Amino acid sequence: MKFTVFSRRTAAAAVAVLAASTFSVIESAPAGAVSGYGAIAYNPYDAAGWAIDYPTRQAASQAAVNSCGYTDCEALTTFTGCGAVAKSHSLKVVQGGSGTTLARAEASALRQLNAADGYIDTWACN
Question: Which residues form the signal peptide (predicted)?
Fold first, then answer.
């Protein structure tokens, strides 16, 4: 019998802890709040750099360019959700896109690339 009583007490305590932690997890940022900015940079020879969770778009862009590692790197996209870069073999071009989800960022990049052989080369999310 003591084992059963102990199990019930343990279960009750576990439920209380779980309930308390659930309320902490469910609490979210206010509507419209931005958790951080991200960016993806490229150079003409396919070097890439990423940056996520920066306080401003400019800081994210600069960090992405710096992480790309070459002087001719440029930020192709900045984002608060996700960013993606699409490439085309036939057109030899790249295009950045962004969206609230990875799927939307990829679709944005491919739509802006507008090439039949377009594909996603890289992506990043905050």
Answer: 1-33
